[in-house]
Amino acid sequence: MDIIDKIFSLGSVGGTTIVLCGSMLIAFIGYALGSIKIKGVSLGTAGVFLMALLFGYLFTLPVLKDVPIVGKFFIESAGAGAVSKYKMLSSIGLVLFVTAVGFIAGPSFFKNLKKNAKSYVLLGVLIVGSGALVCALFSLIYGSAYGTGIMSGALTSTPGFSASQEAVSSANPDQLGLVALGHAVAYPFGVVGVVLFVQLIPKLLKADMAKERELMKVGTEAVVEEKKESKKFFELDEFGLGAFGLAVVLGILLGSIKIPLSGSGYAEGAATFSLGNTGGPLLMALILGHFGRMGKLSLKVPEKTLKVFREFGLMLFLLGAGVEGGVELVDQIAKSSDGAMILLYGFISGALMTIIPMIIGYFVARKLLKMSMLNALGSITGGMTSTPALGTLIGVAGTDDVAAAYASTYPVALVLVVLASQLIAVLI
Fold this sequence. Notes:
Elements: H1 2-7, H2 16-34, H3 46-58, H4 81-142, H5 144-154, H6 158-171, H7 176-204, H8 209-216, H9 220-229, H10 241-255, E1 259-260, E2 272-273, H11 276-291, E3 293-294, E4 297-298, H12 303-335, H13 340-368, H14 373-383, H15 387-397, H16 402-427
Antiparallel strand pairs: 1-2, 3-4
């Protein structure tokens, strides 16, 4: 053991080099898993999440601690330094992804929103509302702490998870661990379920994707003209990294603004709402992507740069979230006295909170609102606040235009998930 460790001087357990090696190994195996197709359906980037979840679980097993090289990846607990580094990767990845999506959707976003604003708001209300209703019913069995944690996992909503923790810590602080357990149990299906849904629907309905793409094209000519005009403006760099960085900084500042949700204002422990590091950068990138310039300064970011940031950001987000989820799952199960039954209950209720809102949302979008298939699926990924599913849908659709529907529904769902989590946690 000592000799091998001296030969391979990878650094200490939980060190930056170890986390980097672990991350790239997860990415390699995860993409390999995601590339496997069964009847045309694959996990895609969600394969990275599943592998990260498995990694987070396996490397908390004490038996691996003394294995040469492998022992370097051992994670002591949910509070270990390595977990915080994986969390940081997840946060960075999410910001990169949503900023890229905002720039991609920006040129057509406001025109699309103006045309379908009522539809997007209605879908956001229906999707989150139906999920919240299922959550309220299941909360009557195991309580709102576990129920709201499950809902935030089923809808893959970090802001909803934070809101649940905040509300429960004020009302029932001794049940705070149940929020984390519920989120960890429901999150895997929350990711994979929506990813599979956006692939299965076109397959089952034998959709003509070329025709569906045509229905999604909005404002293409205007974008071409804007690209020609952009040559008149000063560009910071050929890859658009400067403009991208500006959007991230301004977006984080915007997302950090807190709005009180009660008469207590900004008092310690009082409920507040903010767009966070997801909604802030997304909204700012939409705005900058729409206008494309600031005075004589061009804020255009080349499509190739945006696609790289979009995929790389998604990979980092799923990687970090998966490892954290796997470790948290082990940690919370160890603290729970209910054993396997609470896990089974959490998985089933979480699956229903994922599936029912999608079915209702798709039916209403197609039959009542007469939306095109890709527009409907894009709206559902936004309503489910599912970052991984949007990445998958873009690949399935063969066009980035679906990002506009996601970006239009996402803010509505973001606000409603936070409010619903707090309301259920207080009332039940």
